[in-house]
Amino acid sequence: MRVVDICSFNPLDYKSGGVGSTTFHINSALVRHGIEVINICFANESFVKESKMGKVIAIKTYDNELLKLLTYPIRSALLARKLKPDVLIGEGPSNFGGSLIASLIRKPNTIHIERAHGTHMNLILSTQKKSLHMRILGRLMAEIIERYQFILADYSFCVSYSVRNELIKYYKINKSRIKVIVSGTDTKKYKPLGKAKKAELRSSMRFYDGMVYILYIGTDPSRKGLDIVLRSMELLRDMPIHLNVIGIDNDNGLNFIRNNYIKHLDADRISFIGKINEDEKIKYYKASDLLFFPSRYEGIALVSLDALSSGLPMVVSNMVGIEQIAGSSSGVFVSPDFDPKHYADIIVKLIDRIDRLDKCKKNARKIALQYDWIRVGERYYDAIMHIVKSELHER
Length: 395
What we know:
Layout: E1 2-6, H1 17-32, E2 36-43, E3 47-51, E4 54-60, H2 65-82, E5 87-90, H3 98-105, E6 111-116, H4 120-126, H5 132-152, E7 155-158, H6 161-171, E8 178-180, H7 195-204, E9 212-217, H8 226-235, E10 241-246, H9 250-259, E11 270-274, H10 278-287, E12 290-293, H11 302-310, E13 314-317, E14 332-335, H12 340-351, H13 358-369, H14 373-394
């Protein structure tokens, strides 16, 4: 059986984020089961690579977003048709409608599965300050490309239950054509430390005794709620708290503070660490006291799954997706809105309990093991094989 997946960014590249990570792990599972997988993506240079997730074929595209929007969908769709897949997979509107065109010109008996990592429609509605790019191209992608990608698809696979509800609400997709398979985490890499080893790690990272270390991870500060984090820190400025921000360097972090008119912050209590490799990031998960992630919109936040696996308590918004599979008994504390004071109040209460959250860590780990990437990959394989067998029987 041959699966052709029309991606966006190169899924072998860390810059592809949560969509790329999910695509990599799921398609790797299909390859492990002997399925031929060919991934189409765009890049600065054309190339063909063999990998754990199958073959990756990159189409060289323009840097200009409009030119990319006009050329990549057609070229990727024509290549997908030429490859004669049994199953055509699309990664939502991030491929600029490549899977939409591919679905229109697919050969008979090709099954089209569209993966929903989130919806552009909800992203637009959740964004406060909409750029011209979002108002024009974003709306185009949501109202036309995204809508018909999911309408034309035989099935949609969603990374969370909230995304499934979005497909039903915005695009009237039949619930029977939607399968929810929650994304995963690497439970072998992301795992909690005992008290002695954690103290040793904190010492090596120059974490001070008596200081509570809060972790934030994200490269899109406006969408992922960094302004809410910083305004909450303003309210908590008299408490022994240090914030580590991963994904944003010092210059961009200071500019973000100025642009959002956040004035009452102690610069010595915030570290903008920038982008770091996964091994270094894992150290922060293991050494920190809390993950603070009040994102305004996610399909599901992989950082929250990694925190769950690490036994790291977290304070998140109700748009992160983790609240659908875990609650306060596993250290997940959710605010119903984006009021910095509400988040600050939750953190104040948690600081008094941090040393007594061992039971939460154990519960978090139990839940996380259910969403190890290996198990998630098996669920995808089983779901795809069930669909293939059902479609063959019907046809």
